[in-house]
Fold this protein.
Amino acid sequence: MTDSAIRPYVTRDTRATALAALTAVDHKTIGLRWIITAFAFFIGAGLLALTMVTQLMQPGLNVLSMEAYNQFFTMHGMTMMFFFAVPIMLGLGIYFVPLMIGAREVAFPRLNAFGYWVYAFSGIALWIALLMGRAPDAGWFNYTPLSGPVYSPGINVDLYALSISFLEFANLVAAVILIITIFKMRAPGMSINRMPVFVWSILVVAWMIVFAMPPLMLATIMLALDRIVGTHFFRIPGGGSSHLWQHLFWFFGHPEVYIIAIPAFGMVSTILPTFSRRRLVGYLPVVLSQVIIGITSFGLWVHHMFAGELSVLAMTFFAASSMSIAIPSGVQVFAWIATIWTGTKLRLTAAFYWAVGFIPLFVIGGITGVMVSAPPFDWQVHDTHFVTAHFHYVLLGGSVFPLIGMLYYWFPKMTGRMLNEKLGKLSFWLTFVGFNIAFFTMHYTGFHGMPRRVHTYMEGLGWGGPMLITWIGAMIVGAGFAVTLVNVFISQASGEPAGDNPWEAGTLEWATTSPPARHNFDSIPAVVSRNPLWYALEQDADATPAAYELPDNDRMTMGTSTLDGEPEQRLLVSDASIQPLVMAIGGTVAFYGALVSLWLVPFGASIAFVSIVMWNWPGRNREKEQS
């Protein structure tokens, strides 16, 4: 693709830009907003982490006050877990799932836009609170009674409760949209056993969100009632239970680890076959492993509470469940290794480096996870740096590495330009080396008793030297991610034109232009293989599958049967609208207004109500269809 072909996409008509930005519902625009916003939160959380590790670099430092440190580590955890890790996976799903299944749009585009605005407003509100020194400060886990009205009387924890409830609603919206899109809008011929593994991973995660997020929303609403109204769900003097919060939180919290990890598994299963030049080894076992992990992850939550008051029988059951989930995870690791091992011609790109580098990091995190699933061992390392090292190997090493690899893989499709390969490999090696220096060292400090979540520590404990090493490693990690950030900005402006399929990949997102047209596909492709583009080449045909023609309407796509992908109907999806933004504004005013003045609650609710009425005004969609 030439520069002249790319330039019209990049430099749009400025007269309509503002209105288009506010009313856009196209899944690629909304998905890209999720992705960019999540990465912005990732950068912010990373800067908080570097500041915290600087505070702990040596004993007795005063880089941060105790109050600021509590807010920093709470916001770091909240941002990474709630506002980066899950939303970035949903954003990639919203952008790429329709392209990978041969659809022109997601189901319910306006609802999709509404979900994004809710996500953005909830995160912005929290970060404004941090700048004002009023951010949540009881940890991302927000344990009661520490987070109750007695020990945290300020507005800080109220913001936690309201923001998390608001955010999880956005996640549920995105999950439901993705489930319906995957089940009912696949290209003709794409039966469920022909879906790309990444699409399977998003489907599994979407179902997990449907079951995992409501308990957290319930818990945060109950906490808000305890704090604002005076109920006693978690307040022990009134007959409540602080353990109830832990059960509700971790019933969400441990599935969330796999809500983050399973899409990363799907990314690795997408990248490695492309650059190994062969189909994924063990497609069926890999997919079944993801489904099994998704189900089993709901039976592990109590291993976070082994240091509490639990019966031996309960601990035994949850320890066995926690160990058993390593089996389906191991199946995927062996499938990835076999795919590389039997590849016909390895192509050592930056994306391939990031995907392969993930494997040893995830294995280390998995091994330490099995270790802490044994109650006697967990009692020794509970709330120490050993646990911090474990979950960073699982979440940062096991999820962010594939995510950066997917950035290098899909950036050409999103922008029409290639990222710089040399900078990509430099970024990988800096991050990989720095990561192991920083977090492997934390296993050592954990074994030597250094607790998590401490503002400082005394001299003579033997932690200063290892923490200095951790600080050095963290700075190298920061430099590695900074190289990728610079690479993105430079390549977006002047990168090499990519062409439609620079990697010669086999899945449908590469069958359209780079970047994709507004309607994705001129004609809906017909699928006869798990890798339709490779199948077409093997059959000596064009690199584009056979297609189903639709009327000249870029808001029309194909509806197909759930199991076999048989054509059933033509679907007309909604066009641009300002109502999703207006309703999100009304909801934000109503939610957060309760912390300022109760009069803002009906005011915001009125805005949302008017928006709903306009959203569903009789005849509006019919007029658009006839026009």
